[in-house]
Structures are given as structure tokens and as C-alpha cells.
Specification:
binds adenosine-5'-monophosphate-propyl ester, Rossmann fold
Length: about 625
């Protein structure tokens, strides 16, 4: 029996038991047989959730790009590694073979070195979904630089915050990006961000939309001429297993975004392992994940996991709606996609359109369908299962997080029987548990509580960049000796997990994690605003949308509310990005607060969701009268 590739349910249970009984032996065997190490580890696992400190494969040396590229060259050099499908369906798709990827990554790595980037330096990558993005990521990994990819939909302020937090030396960007029928001036956003980023020495600019842009002397350089001059050969930097591979920012319920730090060896082993099993990838398959590489899903399951398995991974530049609502299905037909991985919000949006967009396309290549990022509702699950999978392709509802690095709870297709809305069973090596309000683990089934993990796994984030204390407080302080996920979950009679949603102030809008604090800070910057509170409310496409309660300063002036709403959303767009805009803004004279001054978001959430049947006892509030006022004026 192979631990690496699970094919049946009985096998899963056997492997799972082994992974819990002998975790070190389990991961050691996988690491040994399926990866290329330059030096073997001294110890498989060292851990202490109190500190917290977790080290996998300590003492081992490797370079992840040798695992993702070099070792495939002999057998698969001419195989497509990355299949680039452009925004415009009339532009030709680009097949980048493993041989070509090797050369492109080396050229890029040599350019980085020539600009003074070395091991441990941070490089910010702010690029659209073009091949340069994947190549830049791998080029950093090749030379041991730490990449910090910032999703190219974030605003200049959000970008500069992230650059400064990691003290990046370089930004890699493009003149602009295509997004459906629109173009976005990325370089303009970078220029604005860099006004407040003293650590940046160089900006490399890829040409994508051929727009007129400003190139700052002594700082900005076009990428392509540098690549053309660089050597296509290069040695990979040998890294320790626990050296940082990348930083990726994620929102917290309070404060600035957290730079989650992922390290090299464990991350590689776990993302490759889960890719193989969750998607049942076989040689020759074409795999497509529609996420952006700016998110963890793209890091782990467009770049590292697939390439470590020598897979063909599709990179899609466009959007599901351009030039029509059938684009996803057209791409699946065109490239004969076998595994398709997307977000519930996309499925819900597509399910609203006439089925004729799907019907004209041959989707018979599909074998496995996946979802990620938020709970999938039953209706969307069935639509996906019936119309896309034709009831033949199992749906893997994969639960995980930026912090976990890889998929934690998911069916294994053709092995685990699926049930709509259930992420089902933990992956081998993952030991989830549910905690009650007294901090006790709930044993037995069924159960409902807060989802924690009680044993380390190889791809867990090791710290928050520059703030280990915050890492400890956020993830390891709520429950003794456990990693707390921030999610609630239930476990049914058979042990299947269903994720019920966040239990903190993080709101997931269209699959994007948004913390309330930075949005409220942006709103409060408006000169007319005294105070604000954001909550989520159910939305039939986005899953959740944002509802803002805003108290205006008393100036005696009568302000136009519609204009104020526009200005507030404009501020949010500038400070964070359009994804964080509010759907509804209600102006109010007060916010319900406890006597200690804490905003009662639970009440605001219920009112915004039009669910006021059980608001609980409001009489103990500091200002119970505002509850009625807010209810009377709800939007
Ligand atoms: O609330 C969970 C939700 O997304 C959160 C993690 O978001 P992020 O770090 O941006 O990573 C998203 C992609 C891995 C989780 O805490 N979430 C993710 N997957 C699911 C989910 N909720 C329900 N079902 C899922 N399959």
C-alpha cells in the first residue's frame, strides 16, 4: 500500500490511522520516497505549541524549485508545466513546458541576483495572472529570496502596508492588467504605494497591456530586456527545510494584516501530498484552479503542489464573465480539463445565468470538481454536481486556510462518499477537534463547537512576520495546546465535518477574508464620520456582503446620504480595494454597546440579516434605545 496515493476508503482509514499513530514515521516515508533532498533531516518533527514552535525535517537541505522543475526534466521536459489561458479568448494560449520553465525561472533568478537580491531578502510581487507571476515566485524560491505576493486587486495603501511590514527590497509588477473588458493601471498603483516605501530599491516591470507608464529613473526597469540578456542556467540556492519560503498576508479580526510565514520543506511535502490525493492527479491530466496566485490557494494549488507532482497546471488571466458567462466551460472544453477547482461564489454567480451557457460545451473530460474558500450551500453544490459534473465527478469541498498552507479537511475523490456542504474527513496527518465554550474538547459524535487542530502538520505557518507574540495570541492562546482556526464546525454521527463559518470578526465576502478593523478604520477617516461598525449579512452570490453602520459627526449640517455612501466606498477602495466595498450603509445615531464600551456586533449582525426574532436581552446595554432605532431604519 502506498501512503502517497490513496485510492480507496479502507486505504484512507488505514493511512489515516498510521499518520496519527506514528506521525514522524508516516511523514518521513513520504518525504523520503517522493522528494529530492540535498541533505537528509536530523529530526522529522520538533514541536511545542506553548512557545509555539514547530519544525519539520530540521537539518534537511533542499531547494523547492529543484523539486518542482529540475527533477522532472529527464522524463517530462517537453510536457506542459504551465498552460496560460489569456483574458481574451482570441489571444493564443501559451504552453510552457518543464524545459522552458526551467530556463525562464533561471533567467528570472539571474536577473534578481543581478539586482542585488539574495537569500532571505523579501521581494514583493504585484502582478496579474500572467506567466511572469508564477515564474517570479519560482525565481525567488530558486535563489532563496522570500516572496510576498500581493493580490493585484489591492489598493496602493494596502500594497504599501504589506511592502513596509516585510521591508521588501524590490517590487515586481506590470504596466497594467486586463480584467474582462477593462484594464487596470497597476504601475500607477505601485508608484503611489512606493511614495511611502523607503525599503524599495528596484521595480521590475513586465509589459502586458502596452500602456503609457511612468518609469522612475534609477528605480524602474523593464523586465523583458533583462530576461533576454540573462543566462538560462543557474544553480539553485540550497535552503534549510525551515528557511522561510514566502510571506502571505491575511486579514485578522483586528489590526493590520498578518504576514503568515511559510517555510520550505514541510510546505513542499504537504502541498504536494494533498494535491495528489485531493485531486487524484494522474500523469497526463490537465488541472485547473481558477484562484489567483495572490491568495494561498494559488500558491499551494496552482504553483507548488501541482508542479511538485510534475502536473500540467492552468493559469487563467480572465474572469468567469468575459466575454460571456460560458467562459469557464469554454476553457474546460478547449484544454480538456480533468480537475477543476473554484470558489462557491463563482458557482453561485454562474448558476444564476441560463443553463444554455453550460449546455453548448463538452465537459466530458472532467473527473474531479473542487470548491474552496467558504461554505458551499446545498443549492450551489447540486447545481455544480448536476450541470458541471453530470453526477459523475465527485465534488471535493476542501476546508483550509492561509495559515494551514494546505488542504486540511476534504473528501478524497472516489474514496470518500460526499455529502453536500460537508468537507467530510481530515487529511492524513491532520488531527482536528471541536472545543466547547469552557475550553474542553467535545468527544463523541455528533458534536458542534470551535474547530481546532491538536497536532502539528508539515505546512502550518510558523509565525507572523515580525510578530511572533501575535502568532501565539491569535492561534495558540484560546485553547491550551491547540491551534485555533477561528472557524466553527459540526461533526456528524459518522465523523464528517461541516464548517459552519467564522466565529470571529473576519467576514468572508466572495471567498475573500476581510477583517472588520481595517475597513472601519478606512470609513472613520471620512471627515464626516464619528464611528462605524461593519458586519456581514447573507448574500446569494457573495455568500456574505458587508453592512456598515455609521455614526456621523454632529455638525448641524444636512449631508446628502447618497453622496456620503459613495465617498465612504471610495475611501474603502483607496485604502483596501474594491473587494471590501460595503453593499449597504445605514446612518445611525448610535451603536449598541456593552457597559464596558464594546460594540455588540451580534445584535448588529442579526439586524442586518433581518433576523430579529431572538436578539437576546438588550436591557443591560449601555444604550438599549438605539437597537429599536436601528431596527426601524434597517436597509
Ligand atoms: O472560514 C474558513 C473559510 O475560509 C477561511 C480561510 O480563508 P483564507 O485564509 O483566505 O483561505 C481561503 C482558501 C484556503 C477559513 O477559516 N473556508 C475555507 N475553505 C472553506 C471555508 N469555509 C467552509 N468550507 C470550506 N471548504
Amino acid at each position: 500500500m502506498s501512503y502517497y496515493h490513496i485510492k480507496h476508503l479502507e486505504e484512507y482509514f488505514q493511512v489515516y490511522r498510521k499518520s496519527v499513530r506514528d506521525p514522524e514515521i508516516f511523514w518521513e516515508e513520504i518525504a523520503e520516497e517522493h522528494f529530492l533532498w540535498r541533505k537528509r533531516w536530523d529530526k522529522v518533527l520538533n514541536w511545542d505549541f506553548n512557545k509555539p514552535e514547530v519544525k519539520w525535517f530540521e537539518g534537511a537541505q533542499l531547494n523547492i524549485t529543484e523539486n518542482c522543475i529540475d527533477r522532472h526534466l529527464a522524463a517530462k521536459g517537453d510536457k506542459t508545466a504551465i498552460l496560460f489561458e489569456p483574458n481574451d479568448p482570441n489571444e493564443v494560449a501559451v504552453h510552457i513546458t518543464y524545459n522552458e520553465l526551467y530556463e525562464r525561472v533561471n533567467r528570472f533568478a539571474n536577473v534578481l541576483k543581478s539586482k542585488g537580491i539574495g537569500k532571505g531578502d523579501r521581494v514583493c510581487i504585484y502582478l496579474p495572472m500572467i506567466p511572469e507571476l508564477a515564474v517570479a515566485v519560482l525565481a525567488c524560491a530558486r535563489i532563496g529570496a522570500i516572496h510576498s505576493v500581493v493580490f493585484a486587486g489591492f489598493s496602493a495603501t494596502a500594497l504599501s502596508t504589506r511592502i513596509n511590514d516585510a521591508e521588501c527590497k524590490m517590487v515586481i509588477t506590470s504596466d497594467g492588467s486586463f480584467r474582462g473588458a477593462k484594464t487596470i493601471d497597476l504601475k500607477g498603483i505601485v508608484d503611489e504605494a512606493l511614495e511611502t516605501c523607503p525599503s524599495i530599491e528596484t521595480v521590475l516591470v513586465a509589459k502586458r497591456i502596452n500602456s503609457e507608464i511612468n518609469m522612475k529613473a534609477d528605480r524602474d526597469e523593464w523586465l523583458q530586456p533583462l530576461l533576454d540578456k540573462a543566462s538560462p542556467e543557474g544553480e539553485a540556492e540550497i535552503m534549510n527545510a525551515e528557511d522561510p519560503l514566502f510571506i502571505l498576508y491575511t486579514s485578522g479580526s483586528t489590526g493590520q494584516p498578518k504576514g503568515m510565514v511559510h517555510t520550505t520543506g514541510g510546505y513542499m511535502v504537504y502541498t504536494a501530498y494533498t494535491f495528489k490525493n485531493v485531486f487524484q492527479y494522474n500523469d497526463g491530466d490537465v488541472y485547473w484552479c481558477t484562484a489567483d496566485i495572490g491568495w494561498i490557494t494559488g500558491h499551494s494549488y496552482i504553483v507548488y503542489g501541482p508542479l511538485a507532482n510534475g502536473a500540467t497546471t492552468v493559469m487563467f488571466e480572465g474572469v468567469p464573465t468575459y466575454p460571456h458567462w460560458g467562459r469557464f466551460w469554454q476553457v474546460i472544453e478547449k484544454h480538456k480539463v480533468n480537475q477543476f477547482y473554484t470558489a462557491p461564489t463563482a458557482i453561485r454567480a454562474l448558476a444564476k445565468e441560463p443553463l444554455s451557457h453550460v449546455e453548448g460545451h463538452d465537459l466530458s473530460s472532467l473527473k474531479v470538481l473542487g470548491t474552496v474558500g467558504e461554505p458551499i450551500n446545498e443549492e450551489a453544490w447540486h447545481w455544480y454536481n448536476d450541470n458541471i459534473g453530470k453526477m459523475r465527478s465527485p465534488i471535493v469541498d476542501t476546508w483550509w486556510q492561509t495559515e494551514t498552507g494546505g488542504i486540511m479537511i476534504s473528501p478524497i475523490p472516489f474514496a470518500t462518499p460526499t455529502i453536500p456542504t460537508f468537507a467530510t474527513l481530515p487529511m492524513p496527518g491532520i488531527q482536528p477537534c471541536l472545543m466547547d465554550e469552557n475550553g474542553e474538547e467535545i468527544k463523541g459524535n455528533p458534536a458542534q463547537g470551535r474547530l481546532c487542530v491538536k497536532f502539528p502538520w508539515p505546512s502550518m505557518a510558523r509565525t507572523i512576520w515580525g510578530n511572533h507574540q501575535r502568532y501565539k495570541e491569535t492561534y495558540f492562546s484560546a485553547y491550551d495546546q491547540k491551534y485555533f482556526t477561528g472557524d466553527g464546525a459540526l461533526r456528524d454521527q459518522t465523523g464528517y465535518y461541516r464548517i459552519t463559518g467564522r466565529v470571529d470578526d473576519v467576514i468572508i465576502v466572495s471567498g475573500h477574508n476581510l477583517g472588520t478593523a481595517p475597513i472601519e478604520d478606512a470609513i472613520n477617516e471620512h471627515q464626516a464620520v464619528a464611528e462605524s461598525a461593519i458586519v456581514g449579512f447573507p448574500h446569494d452570490v457573495k455568500g456574505n456582503a458587508l453592512y456598515g453602520y455609521v455614526i456621523l459627526k454632529e455638525t448641524g449640517e444636512d449631508r446628502n446620504q447618497e453622496n456620503l455612501r459613495k465617498e465612504i466606498n471610495q475611501l474603502i477602495t483607496e485604502r483596501i480595494g474594491p473587494i471590501a466595498k460595503l453593499d449597504k450603509i445605514q446612518f445611525t445615531s448610535g451603536l449598541p454597546k456593552t457597559r464596558s464600551g464594546k460594540i455588540m456586533r451580534r445584535i448588529l449582525r442579526k439586524i442586518a440579516s433581518k433576523d430579529t426574532s431572538n436578539l437576546g436581552d438588550t436591557s443591560t446595554l449601555l444604550n438599549p434605545e438605539v437597537v429599536q432605532e436601528i431596527m426601524d431604519n434597517v436597509l
